[in-house]
């Protein structure tokens, strides 16, 4: 990019952000800008196009370029903060132009489907692509077993409410676990039982007792890169869970939401351990693509297909065809694989940075472990620390962290945990944020003789 063009972009951007050019105001025409700034028409055209990609301006055919609404500008002028709370991808990490091209192509290729109510189970062509994608994770099923959902949250909500072939009614969840699952259980007034999940895994003997005695309909688990702990089950744990599911006729809802970020090629899901008859394998696309597309896919045992078809149809008739089309094109064109590689490398570097900074800056007595195979979340355990006060102190210093109270069921003893996300913290943010965190932990140590924090990542 030429210095001239970059200067033009910088000047216009500054005028918009600083409010000198108001939302809805028309910018000078390309010819007017060219004459005013003594540069070529092509330079102005290119500069406007760059600003349009930043969503600062937009074009109206035969009318010119206009400044976008204030709501779209405001994120650009907000105070810079270090965000360890995010559960959605950093917008800068998403190939927005690729997605826009896929959206335009989807409108062209799936035009007929847009004007109808398609199969509630999902577009057949997309389900065939999902079968191929799942094969890469050692999950082998057919398109007749695959369902496309309006996000993983919809899948969980439907599974919670529908009857299962085992005729059981209680649902077992790890503690802590994904808050959205708990919200759906609460909304549907379902009987839920908790089982402790620690950074070291799960008590398999306790799991067997639950399966044997508590009429468990299904066990909801996040075996890989747990939310919020960030840890993963060992192969022998996955195998034993699959064995227990078959032995006691308990279904497993395996939420493998970060499968694509796994760097260990031998880390298979529970489904791969002979779990095809009792494992529902669920995959979200919110962490890879845009959460706003609301897309997830699952493969289910044949025994569940008829009931799930009925409940999916009753829920929304069908998942958005445009969203499905975008994902299918993204997969077919090789964009998905390319994007996954980029994001996996990005998050891996951030985790490596987190490990290095934590070992260098956190207090010596702080214990921590960081998975080397990927992930997005870590959990800070702060016994005998006033967590709410710590969060407020961090916030005043521009660092946002998230307590995990909502990730426990009401009847289960809560731990004093903070969930830490690297999704929107670059390496510079991690360095600065952990530095501030270390200072605040030292301050907390001086005010509490019993302070023994443990960082599990």
UniProtKB/TrEMBL annotation:
Q: Which GO terms describe its molecular function?
A: transaminase activity
Q: Which SMART domains does this chain map to?
A: HTH_GNTR
Where is each HTH gntR-type domain found?
2-70
CDD domains registered for this protein in UniProt: AAT_like, WHTH_GntR
Presence of the UniProt keyword rRNA-binding in the record: no
- Swiss-Prot/TrEMBL cofactor(s): pyridoxal 5'-phosphate
Q: Which UniProt keywords apply?
A: Aminotransferase, DNA-binding, Pyridoxal phosphate, Transcription, Transcription regulation, Transferase
Which Pfam families does the UniProt entry name for this protein?
A: Aminotran_1_2 (PF00155), GntR (PF00392)
| Keyword DNA-binding tagged | yes
User: Which sequence ranges are marked TM in the entry?
Assistant: none
The UniProt family comment states:
In the C-terminal section; belongs to the class-I pyridoxal-phosphate-dependent aminotransferase family.
The protein here is known as PLP-dependent aminotransferase family protein
């Amino acid at each position: 990019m030429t210095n001239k063009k970059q200067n033009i972009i910088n000047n216009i951007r500054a005028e918009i952000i600083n409010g000198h050019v108001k939302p809805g105001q028309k910018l000078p025409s390309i010819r007017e800008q060219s004459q005013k700034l003594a540069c070529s028409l092509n330079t102005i055209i290119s500069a406007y196009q760059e600003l349009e990609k930043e969503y600062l301006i937009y074009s109206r055919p035969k009318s010119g370029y206009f400044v976008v609404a204030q709501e779209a500008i405001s994120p650009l002028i907000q105070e810079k903060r270090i965000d360890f709370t995010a559960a959605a991808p950093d917008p800068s990490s998403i190939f927005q132009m690729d997605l826009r091209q896929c959206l335009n192509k989807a409108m062209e290729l799936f035009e007929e489907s847009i004007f109808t109510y398609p199969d509630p189970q999902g577009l057949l062509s997309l389900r065939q692509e999902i079968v191929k994608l799942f094969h890469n994770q050692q999950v082998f099923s057919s398109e007749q077993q695959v369902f496309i959902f309006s996000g993983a949250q919809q899948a969980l909500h439907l599974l919670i409410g529908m009857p299962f072939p085992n005729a059981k009614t209680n649902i077992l969840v790890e503690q802590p676990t994904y808050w959205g699952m708990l919200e759906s259980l609460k909304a549907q007034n379902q009987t839920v039982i908790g089982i402790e999940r620690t950074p070291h895994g799960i008590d398999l003997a306790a799991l067997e007792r639950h399966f044997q005695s508590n009429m468990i309909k299904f066990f909801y688990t996040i075996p890989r890169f747990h939310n919020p702990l960030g840890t993963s089950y060992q192969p022998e744990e996955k195998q034993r869970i699959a064995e227990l599911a078959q032995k006691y006729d308990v279904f497993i809802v395996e939420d493998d939401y970060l499968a694509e970020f796994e760097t260990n090629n031998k880390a298979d899901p529970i489904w791969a351990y002979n779990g095809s008859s009792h494992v529902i394998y669920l995959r979200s696309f919110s962490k890879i693509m845009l959460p706003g597309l609301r897309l997830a896919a699952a493969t289910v045992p044949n025994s569940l297909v008829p009931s799930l078809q009925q409940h999916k149809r009753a829920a929304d008739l069908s998942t958005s065809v445009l969203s499905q089309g975008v994902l299918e094109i993204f997969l077919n064109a090789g964009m998905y694989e390319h994007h996954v590689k980029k994001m996996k490398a990005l998050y891996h570097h951030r985790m490596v940075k987190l490990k290095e900074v934590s070992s260098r800056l956190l207090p010596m007595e702080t214990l921590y472990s960081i998975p080397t195979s990927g992930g997005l979340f870590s959990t800070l355990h702060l016994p005998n620390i006033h967590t709410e006060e710590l969060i407020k102190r961090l916030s005043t210093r521009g660092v946002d962290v998230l307590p995990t109270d909502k990730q426990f069921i009401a009847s289960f003893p809560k731990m004093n945990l903070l969930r830490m996300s690297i999704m929107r913290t670059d390496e510079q943010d991690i360095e600065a944020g952990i530095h501030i965190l270390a200072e605040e932990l030292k301050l907390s140590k001086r005010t509490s003789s019993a302070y023994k924090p443990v960082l599990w990542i």
